[in-house]
Design a protein that fits this description.
The complex is a heterodimer of chains A (193) and B (439). Chain A is mainly α and 193 residues long. Helices cover 55% and strands 0% of the residues of chain A. Chain A has two domains: 25-99, Cytochrome c-like domain (Cytochrome Bc1 Complex, Chain D, domain 2); 112-191, Cytochrome c-like domain (Cytochrome Bc1 Complex, Chain D, domain 2), CATH 1.10.760.10. Chain B has 439 residues and is α/β, with parallel strands linked by helices. The chains are: A mainly alpha (193), B alpha/beta (439).
């Protein structure tokens, strides 16, 4: 009851006067995250071939990625520069928002034979952390399914060059894969809807 | 008896056909439309927001209001059936891409997906006292109005730059037919020719745009017309955007066919003599001349009293983006003069996208009696330096002490180590932002 009343008084202030800066509340998770859609698509569903979808990523993976962009631990073009404009609380707000968005399936050209081969590789090597064929983000494990093949290839190249670091468990498996296996794995993830 | 838009234009006799040209949001120097007083879509019981301008700002404002509150009726008023993006139009002008379709969007899917009511008409007046918008097809009542009008040109500041001169020396600063004119002129120029570009003092639409264009024209000449040269006349004393990156691109790739000259403000044009003049003191002759004139908020903003004392740009409140003199009218995008601390948000497509979402959110909050929210937005602008390399500026903006300020602004590394990756990201940026605007 008390809360309702204070909301009403807010409304009177905001609605009846020319709303000045002092009247507003800090940016909400929606407000902060909407701005990301200019590059990542509405609600984080990407249509751009080199741009990852953020929709349905786990909260921890978003926060982890943003912190690593900000510190420079994860290599980037614009992301490191943008991350410097946000606080840890902002990163949590982004994680809140994107983790609540629906999974964004994409339709893309993949090599069916490679995708089939990739499925077996995924099952044997990746599925313990990237659960449900990479559709479900667990803890700080990102959603891999339906990410654009071009984006996956760019990230794989960053890993292989040593510019982007992977967790030890992942490196143990990834580094044992042949070039063809890696390629097949990416085709598989791109194909999962 | 009504007449359709095409016959209307014929009737009024738009000298250059420019009423159909340019970015969808604005006309620019065309024959004035005549407003009609009959109400075209009488308002029912639902609350209504009328959004004016279907460009980078208006489409997003309309969409996000509907995403945030389906009980609010949204009418999007736009002059043209299609919108052509200014970002990436330099690729088309310089022949790196030959397909303008990749830069063109329509409104059908956006309208269907979100229940937005489209009205294709030219707005002639925003009457904030009567809360109605007057258009070439009739009037529309509103509860709140969001205007994303874009820019028009201050042609009067360049002697002789009339509608005819605009065909001879195209600005190509609104994508569409003007882009094609400049492209055709470049393609048909003989090798050994001189291209002159002129650009205005800040502020103008897309700060790095003229410099990107200079790189891409120089790239085109280097590749296809190696005996030709380009001169960029900048009214500003020095490069005003991404300076270390553009100066490096010029000196690395185009030092043999490109010259930058700062502090050269074009004040008159001579179409017959194929030249531009700097304050009557110095003339530059060219085989192709691209004049980017000084700018202001588009005509509709001026006519409706939305511009401030400078008669050029629209002051707005930093929270609601509401016009101080026109309650209920909110302005976003290139036309605005935001209360800023430090360098303001650039007049860019990405800025308009961020501002549109923010404005939509606070318009919905105001209509629902909820507290307004402080600004948080982004600007990312990519600029190509040739056909496979791009550089960028990335900026975050938020509200600090009542003004919009950037806590983080940075450009690409000057060693050009990321230019190829950024070129690929730039293409995805275009795809995503146009998809966001059209679906």
């Amino acid at each position: 009851m008390k809360m309702k009343k204070s909301l009403v008084s807010w409304a009177l202030v905001a609605g009846c006067t020319f709303s000045g800066a002092a009247m507003a509340v800090p940016p909400t998770p929606e407000m902060i995250s909407f701005a990301c859609a200019g590059c990542h698509g509405t609600n984080g569903g990407s249509a751009g071939l080199t741009m990852p979808s953020l929709a349905s990523q786990s909260k921890a993976s978003i926060v982890d990625a943003m912190k690593k962009f900000k510190s420079g631990e994860r290599p980037s073009t614009v992301m490191g520069r943008l991350a410097k404009g946000y606080t840890d609380a902002d990163f949590t707000a982004m994680g809140d928002f994107f983790s609540k968005q629906k999974f964004h399936p994409t339709t893309q050209m993949v090599d069916a034979a490679k995708a089939k081969r990739g499925e077996a590789i995924e099952d044997a090597n990746c599925s313990r952390c990237h659960i449900d064929q990479g559709k479900d983000g667990k803890d700080d494990t990102p959603v891999m399914a339906s990410q654009w093949l071009d984006y996956l290839k760019m990230q794989a190249a960053l890993y292989d060059s040593g510019k982007r670091k992977m967790p030890k468990d992942m490196a143990d498996k990834w580094n044992k894969l042949s070039k063809e296996d890696k390629e097949a794995l990416l085709h598989f993830y791109a194909s999962v809807k | 008896m009504t007449f359709d838009r095409r016959s209307f234009i014929k009737l009024v006799g738009s000298a250059s056909g420019l009423a159909l040209a340019g970015c969808a949001t604005t006309g620019g120097g065309d024959a004035p439309a005549v407003g009609k007083t009959a109400e075209i879509m009488p308002k029912g019981s639902a609350r209504r927001v009328v959004v004016i301008g279907g460009g980078y700002g208006g489409t997003i404002a309309a969409k996000y209001i509907r995403m945030l509150d389906k009980s609010i009726e949204v009418v999007l008023v736009e002059k043209n059936k299609q919108f052509v993006s200014c970002p990436f139009s330099n690729f088309y002008i310089t022949g790196i891409t030959n397909d303008m379709n990749a830069l063109t969007i329509g409104y059908d899917k956006l309208a269907a997906n979100h229940g937005i009511k489209m009205v294709y008409a030219e707005v002639t007046q925003i009457d904030s006292a009567a809360k109605k918008v007057v258009t070439s097809e009739g009037t529309l009542a509103y509860d709140r109005c969001i205007v994303s009008p874009g820019v028009d040109f201050r042609n009067e500041e360049i002697e002789g730059y009339d509608a005819k001169a605009m065909e001879a020396f195209p600005h190509a600063w609104k994508a569409g037919p003007q882009s094609t004119i400049l492209r055709n002129q470049l393609m048909s120029m003989k090798d050994g020719g001189t291209v002159i570009m002129s650009m205005p003092l800040t502020p103008y639409r897309c700060p790095p745009g003229p410099y990107e264009r200079s790189c891409l024209i120089a790239h085109y000449l280097k590749k296809h017309k190696p005996k030709s040269k380009l001169i960029l006349l900048d009214a500003n004393p020095d490069v005003v955007s991404k300076k270390p990156l553009f100066t490096k691109a010029w000196s690395t790739y185009y030092k043999d066919n490109f010259q930058y000259i700062g502090g050269k403000k074009v004040t008159s044009v001579n179409v017959a003599g194929k030249s531009v003049s700097i304050e009557g003191i110095e003339d530059f002759k060219g085989d192709v001349i691209n004049v980017i004139p000084p700018q202001r908020a588009a005509d509709i903003a001026v006519k409706s009293g939305l511009v401030g004392e400078d008669k050029r740009w629209c002051p707005v409140d930093a929270i609601s983006f509401e016009s101080p003199k026109n309650p209920g009218v909110h302005i976003i995008g290139d036309a605005t003069a935001l209360p800023s601390d430090g360098p303001p948000m650039p007049k860019s497509g990405y800025s308009a996208n961020s501002q549109a979402k923010f404005c939509a959110m606070n318009v919905v909050n105001l209509m629902n009696g909820k507290p307004t929210i402080e600004f948080s937005g982004i600007n990312v602008c990519y600029s190509a330096i040739d056909d496979h390399q791009s550089v960028s500026i990335a900026q975050v903006f938020n509200l600090q002490n009542g003004k919009i300020k950037s806590p983080a602004t940075a450009i690409s590394p000057a060693d050009f180590s990321l230019t190829k990756d950024e070129h690929a990201y730039a293409e995805s940026w275009l795809k995503n932002i146009l998809t966001e605007m059209s679906t």
